[in-house]
Specification:
mainly alpha
Length: about 240
Amino acid sequence: MGELSAAETVRAADKIIHDVGSRWMLSGATARHGQEHGFENPFAYYFAGRGGVLGDVDASVVAAALGWFEPAFVRAQWDEGVAVAGAREATRRYALGCAAWGEARLPDDPRLSELAGRVAKVAEGSALPVFCGWRAEPLPEAGPARLMQLVQVLRELRGGLHLVATTAVGLSPLEAILTQDGPDTARFFGWQGDFPECGALKPRRVEAEEITDRLSAAVYERALSPSERAEFAERVGALGSSVLG
């Protein structure tokens, strides 16, 4: 199977993990699962479910921990979502949706679950509250449901590291979006009005990506041997081919 450096593992695996997690979160099946569990608004389900690991906190805390989203938009969705059943119960229901989506769409790969679990366990959680919250959630016992929740945990790891990196280079959440994805994505994240010109800030975004990759690589370096990293990347690639096409 060969060997991979930690940096090569980042390039081979992290985007796939992100995209599989996004596919679940944005799925119509996930929205329907939310409706079946009391959440008529899929955005309220998302914010209360994803952020509920933080507990009964003010919406400003959720906005800070998730990053990217316009704070008033977060407040509206969070307050609506936690009104359904509370923050921790929202996460429990969201995790059930994660498990159901995984059971329907992911292959059964116990070895990938094992390797992903080791990566999650080794990661330093400082300044990564959403990742730590999801890491602390009980995992399904086995099968695709367990693997899908671990994908979610690792997605929160990368996302948290990236938020740390964009903050470190001096980018606000809106600037971080505009320097990479543009106004349409900013509007999807709840931002409104006229947007600033951020072309001059693009080098900072490049720097933030490099920092994120280094932080992520350090986790793989501690968690897995070179041959295990190659196996992990290969299995993540197969997962991506199965789920993303």
